[in-house]
Input
Amino acid sequence: MINVGTGKDSSLDVQKAAIEATKRALSETGNKANLIIVFSSINFAKKELLEGIKSVAQEAKIVGCTTGGEIIDENVGEGNVAIMAIETDTIDVVVDYEEKIKGREKEAGVKLAKKIKDVSKKELKSLMILVDGFVNGQELIEGIQGVLGKYFPIVGALAGDNFQFKKTYQYFNDKVLTDSAIAVGFCGDFSFGAAMGHGWKPVSIPKGINKAEGFSIEKIEKGTGISLYKEYLGEEADQLTKEPLSTISLNYPLGFEVEGSKEVIIRTTVSATKEGSLTCAGPIIKEGKVRLMVSEIDEGIEAARNISKDALSQIKNKKPKLAIAFNCICRYKLFGPTKQKEILAIKEVIGKDVPLIGFYSHGEIGPLDSKNKDFSFSVLQNSSLCIYLLAE
Amino acid sequence: MNNADVKLKLKEKEKEIEKLQKQLQKERLDFDSAIKLLTRKDVKLVITQQELEKKILDLERAKEEQMILRIRELAKARDIENKTAQLEKLKESLLSALADLNKARKEEEKEKNKTLAIIQNFVDGIFVLDNDNRVLLVNPQAERFLDVNGNDLIGKDFLELSHLPTLNLILNAIGKEIKDIFRKEVKIKENLILEITIAPVMLKEERFGSLIILHDITREKLLEKMKSEFVSIAAHQLRTPLSGIKWGLRIILDGEEGELRKEQKEILERIYQTNERLINLINDLLNVARIEEGRYVYKMSYVDIVSLCMSQIESLKNEIDKRDIKLDVEIKTRIPKTMVDIEKMNLVFQNLLENAVKYNKRGGKILVKFEIEKDNVKVTISDTGIGIPEKQKDKVFTKFFRSENAIKMETEGSGLGLFIVKNIIEGHGGKIWFESKEGEGTTFYFTLPIYSQSDFLEM
Output
């Protein structure tokens, strides 16, 4: 049995908003919950939020984080507390967290995975992680994969802070954390679907990466990082040096080839230095060649539909009990006024009455290519959408 | 095919492949150039789109702002309308208040006019002065009485108007300052006597000026004079025959014309007494008439007033003894001689002592006291008689007054005595007053200034 309810509130009184949203979510689960997932705007990152939730859902484990925008059912926006209450006796939910992970993401990933693995009595089937928005998420994933296996299904995202780019928070029971990673292990007898995609198409001739460090590309074949943009976009590429997350950043991310796969790993170029070095919103995959990507809003929406279909097919087209969407803040910006269309497209596929929660993140975590077993391992993406479905 | 052929063919194929690869590479580059062209166009498109979107957003925002502005303008307009309505209302209420005010002013004006009309037509002459004694108002009657033009006096200091002959007379009567005065007579000319009263004009508890009322008493005075003259003539005409009767009776009573029987003597004695009273009454009337005519001439002499008093006590000795009254005379210091009209002073002592005796209890007491107070002789005559009723005290010195209890006790008496006494004392520059309690007694005090002979001559 899995009962799920959702609720949201945008009252300025943090505790009141938390209570109201939780009450609404609990009203659909018989006022009981094992797990409360909470995504909120940065202004709710206070102890009162968790106290409010706790006051109406005493038994529930609470996990969550701050966002760059909340998704709850067909609603998209900022300034909300979004709550999903899950009441189940079929799924064993195991939660834990790691603090002070920046600079030791891989180690934190290992530790976190071990904690979850050790506690879960039933079979650990999938893992959801909610991570600080300014750490190396890819390394954390690799740490977890080191424990649970390369192909273990991991979904999740890096927290947001409503485009302030200063500090994100993670919620764990009664704690408001930062620089941490929360893990939720789903164990037991149930089915799930996890799919990730984006709708971006490569346009340029692939270029080898000559010099890269961390999140930056200094040099590619025959030029600096920015030369790639200049070659294809001309003068307009200079925007990258002028403002972070400019039109160029949002419309032309980079795609890193993964040997053997038709899929690429997407990195949003946040900005460029005067010297021509590019800074991305995730670690650079040095081994693969890099290409310029293009897309269109309609393509993006079509991608969301396909991702949802993919996830749904994994649960053999059963009706999902719940859906969680990890979307990118770039898509939030890029889609602008049409961003709700993307969410409606998801709901159209998974079922309009399926409870949906999600948020816009600094990085999405999910399988690179769920259709190809060899490349179904989880990675950190930018400008992507990950859908996670749970069913009986 | 032999090996060489195969090799040749292979070479040809390789060349072909190379050619194809070159062609492919060329096509790829061409394609890439095309892509570059397209991506550049795309970015331009994206940016243009972005700009357009931004413009649309701006336009929408502007439209919104414009709408907000419009709404604000409407609100403002409505506000202005409201304010206008409020102002209209205010104006209305102001106008109505003004109308009320005008009405009130008219009422006030009317009231003022009424008051003015009353003042203007008042039978008495009226001057209204402010606190600085400046003339605020003169009514026509006052103008007529004093033969002045009111307009010439308005705003002038009343006390500085002595250059006008009529006002000079009034100012002489008033003195050097405006003080409350009650009924002071001033003869303005032969046929005009005014009675001046000065009263404060109070508004709530504040004095804002003075009212000078000139009341014409010419006719009253004339009547009074005529009455006095009549009384005087009548009294003179009566006194001569009464004196004749007196001396006739005296001769008969003294037995000079033969012995009288006891009954005859008693009857004649009563007639003699009655005649005496008549003579006294006529004397009183004559005195009063003289006082009122202002010809109560004082024949001053340098005398010892104590001895004057003693001789009057002596002449009342029989009455005092008859009533068993104890009379004491107390003289604490030596009383100097002073200038008095002997005849008039005798009248004073006679009247006061007679009252003390007549209205005393049987076996009562009389105390006569002489003292010096400053430059005055103070005489006190107190009795243990019937006293004067409280409510009649203020009439004691008026003509023909007799208190109720006095009438009960003594049917006879002219009621002129104390009037005459007061006039005599004041005529000498003295003062007279009394203290009394009904049923316990009365004390009369009077003072006389002590004049030496030389003082008097110098005067």
About this structure: Chain A touches chain B through 15 residues (CB under 8 Å). Residues 127 and 154 of chain A are 5 Å apart (CA to CA).
